[in-house]
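Weekly puzzle thread! Below is a chain. First person to post its structure in token form gets bragging rights.
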Amino acid sequence: MSTDVDPYVPGHGDLSYDVVHYDLDLAYDVPGNRLDGTATISGVAREVISELRLDLHALDVTKVALDHKPVKYRDRKDTLTVRPATPIPVGESFTLTVRYAGRPTPIASRTLGSSGWEELEDGVIVAGQPHGAPSWFPCNDRPSNKATYRISLAVPTDYRVIANGRLTSSRRRSSSVVWVHEQDQPMATYLATVHVGRYELRTDEGDVDVHTALPRRLQAMYDDTFGDQRAMLDTFVRLFGPYPFEAYTVVVTDDDLEIPLEAQGLAAFGANILTGEWSSIRLVAHELSHQWFGNSLTLDRWQDIWLHEGFACYAEWIWSEESGGRTAQDHAEEHHARLSGLGQDLLLADPGPELMFDDRVYKRGALLLHALRLTVGDDAFFGLVRAWTAKHAHGTVNSAGFMEFADLTTGRELVDLFDRWLYRAALPELPPAP
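Winning reply:
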């Protein structure tokens, strides 16, 4: 077993193997918060494996099979360790089946907060970022290991399930309905999600279908905040490149949520998002842009989170500008002035786990992108962005790769610009606006 895990999320992930597909057959009792599951995990060994380690939090394992044969295992609070009868050779494919059950709970961390499976007043959300996936299924929990998924979840008949990918079937079985979703594009574990609630579904058909799941009582309030989402999507397609998935789904819960939740192919918002104010509309743009920056192009290590959040924050400013509001330059100047008065102790390229979700990462990342845009010009900047999303679609990315790609694509020497913004704590000045 490899011990070279991401220091931002210690104890999660294993580099000795890659998962290529997760097949999850689940049943959930909403009132009792009881989850019963069978996970069939298809993987490939990257090293000789004498012990196979999976991340699984506070759920009880009752049976494990490797290539359809029972195998010895050790089940602890956060780790399932499987011991093959003989080591798995490098390059060998394997199938691991894990039967498990219990009352799923979020995973708490002093530095990362709480994430994972969470009960609502009447239903469930899964907030996986950055370490919550093991709260509901056994997995190799590192963002550099993206896999395809089939998620089958049985819930009582008066609930609807929303999950990643396309809905392939929903069938009645006794007192429950089994909802099956399939995600064909590779997905990081933290982006896998299910939402259970008394939702009604509406669809805005177009080149990319946009689905919305929300309670009936909130339907009349929806358009005040989400009415421009189709125009927003069209704008991002023009500037960022083709939408990377089959459809986009928005979930609005009956509960208020502290922050929206990003997942592949969908985003979840609380009822408190429905204000119609810019403070809410900017979050709609932010989460939509994550479909390119975070979901299709996924960091391979958490220290590069600015590649997700910097782009998503900058997308807010772009939408403001494109929709006739304040320009990106106005937003950049405002936030630059604000950051200038805050502590200068953050390295954007490596903020540390305590600061990885600090607002300065978001805003400084956006300011870096605006500085890059001012330096190379609009045509070169958006050409770079479209080429970046095309080259790395459904893959993983890092800061060094983006820096090199920017140099090659624009034909400019940008080392000093990236050095100032990424690797020095002091906030650089913005280049002069044209």
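Puzzle host: Confirmed. Bonus trivia for everyone else. The chain has three domains: 1-110+123-195, 199-291, 297-422.
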